[in-house]
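Justification of computing resources. Each target in the renewal requires a structure prediction run like the one illustrated here; the chain below, 283 residues long, is used simply to show the kind of job we budget for.
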Amino acid sequence: MQINKEKIFRSSAGALPMRIRPVFEDFHRLIVNEDCDYSEHQHSNYELIVVDKGPYRCTLNDESIQLKHGEFLIIKPGDRHQDHFKTGQDHYVHHFSLHSQEGIQNTGIQLFEDAVKPVLQTGVGSLNAPFDFFKKLSGELSVNDIFSTYIQDSMLETYFWQVIRLLPQETLSGQFRQLSRQLDFHQRLQHNFIKNCNRSYGIKEMAVDMGMSERSLAYRCKELINQTPAKAFNAFRIQKAAEAVKVSDKSIQQIANDFGFENPFHFSRVFKQVMGVSPKQYR
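Resulting structure tokens:
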């Protein structure tokens, strides 16, 4: 029997000490049946407005904004906002909070610079099929089982990054950009780990692949994942080998060879250091 298997690896930010986390609060669809102005109000959290039928008009911090179909605006905490509704207008309003997560502590994240101009809180382009998200989210809200909250937040996280991609990057706060760079570093590091997990991969080669000095690489790894590059790679390689130990019919020696270990004894020793048990016990 011939089988072709193409494996697509997950790009994970799970080991970062801080992670940007949008949290869903509520959303609604607003269809305007008569011309009117909504009274000016000040926002306590983030609000995403996505236009279906426009134009949508509002005043944000004393500046006029106008959006057409597929365009969006993010209103930040503290903004003064007034909608100017016209008959036939149709848009979605999505409220969310934004946090960084470190252990069990949640800390608020500032998305925009303090002095950002209101017009720069809009996207530089239109969202692709933006209303599919709201339809799927609406369907998930109707399920209301024990998994629903997690699914809602994961759906928002995907949509959130699609929205952020379309914001002018110079308007994002220094805090947000720093956290984003941390995510990028971790994803690039893991990409290199994936490519090289079947062999020994030293810090010198790792630093070249990451485009930085060995000292900078060691510092960033200590800062972000509290490990040396070598320990981080060994842990990653062993975790991948552990998956093979669980699901593969190969011998321990064959798996050790597949992951570039000198011999099964070396493999077993490193495996036990990382996993707490030997490969044979783990299987």
